[in-house]
Amino acid sequence: MAIPKFILDIREKAGDTLLFLPGVVMVVFDTRGRVLLNKRADSGKWALISGLPDPGEQPAEAAVREILEETAISAVVERVLSVFTNEPVVYENGDRAQYVDIVLRCRAVGGEARVNDDESLDVRWFALDELPPLGPIARGRIELALRDDPTWFAPAPAPGLADQGYPAP
Fold first, then answer.
1. Which of 27, 40, 42, 103 could tie 82 with a disulfide, CB 3.0–4.6 Å?
2. CATH number of residue 106's parent domain
3. Is residue 2 part of a domain?
4. How far is CA 133 from CA 127, 138, 160, in A?
């Protein structure tokens, strides 16, 4: 998998220091209500399409670009589903990163799903009742995309209340 040049430039200076990076994760639906997944080359597991915004790139622009680059599907972003900070990751080479994911609901508007780069082993549309094994976070993101709930984020306690023994709202 290609590491973006801007990350390589940062790593040259920062070494394996923990980097806090933005990520975009897309729940892409077609007109039949199927969800688009890729089998990742790095893990061999099925996952939602995801990637990193380039410097100066808006999250929606990054989402549309990543979907097209990885799957050959043209898509539009419909709405933000959630903002979520993941646990830190340590890569085989010792580099450490932690991603804050902006999860977006998207709709396919063209193209034929196929492996379109070296990041995927397979790309397919799946009916919701025929999903391959997925982790609980990915399943939760798909479920959230099916509802009209407001954008989800981890709540924070009101300033000062936690210090006074009040529970977080």
1. 103
2. 3.90.79.10
3. no
4. 13, 10, 42
What are the backbone dihedrals phi and psi of residue 163, each rounded to the nearest 5 degrees, phi first? -65, -20
The rounded distance, in Å, linking the Cα atoms of 75 and 53 is: 16
**Is position 7 within any domain?**
no
**Residue linked to tokens 């023994």:** 165
169 residues of the chain, pLDDT tens digit each: 578 899 999 999 999 999 999 999 999 999 999 999 999 998 899 999 999 999 999 999 999 999 999 999 999 999 999 999 999 999 999 999 999 999 999 999 999 999 999 999 999 999 999 999 999 999 999 999 999 999 999 988 777 665 566 555 4
Give the range of the structural domain holding residue 135, as residue numbers without chain letter.
18-147
Query: How many domains does the chain fold into?
Result: 1
